[in-house]
Amino acid sequence: MKSLLLALNVSLLAWSGISYAVDIERGQELHDSHCISCHAAIYGDKGNEIYTRENRKINTLNELQAQLKRCKNSLGTNWPEDQMLDVQHYLNSNFYHFKE
C-alpha cells in the first residue's frame, strides 16, 4: 500500500510537470546530522553498523521506508517527502542495495 501511494505521488508529480531528482548527498547530510548519533549510542562509535549487522531487521525496501518513518517520528524531524526519499536512497545505495 505504501509503495502504491509513493508511486501515485511520483506519478502526480510527473503529470503536473514537477520532477524530483534524488539527492543522495543531501540524504547523507540529513542522516549524519539526525540519525547517526542515536545509532552510535546503541552501537558505539560505529553507528552505521546498524545497517550491516548480521541480524539486521530491515530486509526489504518497504521495511526501510517504514523504519525511516518511525525514526522520523521518534526524532520529531520535519522532513518533507523529498528529504525522506533522499535519506532512503542514501541508505539503500550505501548499505542495503534493494531493487527500487
Helix content range:
55-70%
Low-confidence stretches: 2-16
Distance between the termini: 15 Å
What is the element string, with H for helices and E for strands?
HHHHHH
**Structural class estimated from helices and strands:** mainly alpha
Shape: globular
Instruction: Give the amount of beta strand, in percent.
Output: under 5%
* Largest sheet geometry: none
The number of strands is 0
Give the count of structural domains: 1
For the CA atoms, what is the radius of gyration? 14 Å
Number of helices: 6
Instruction: Give average pLDDT, whole number.
Output: 82
List keywords for this structure.
6 helices, globular, 100 residues, mainly alpha, disordered N terminus
Which helices and strands, and how do they pair?
Layout: H1 2-15, H2 24-34, H3 36-43, H4 49-52, H5 61-75, H6 81-96
Task: Please provide a written account of the structure.
The two termini are 15 Å apart. The protein has 100 residues and is an all-alpha fold. The protein is built from six helices and no strands. The chain is globular, with a radius of gyration of 14 Å. The protein has one domain.
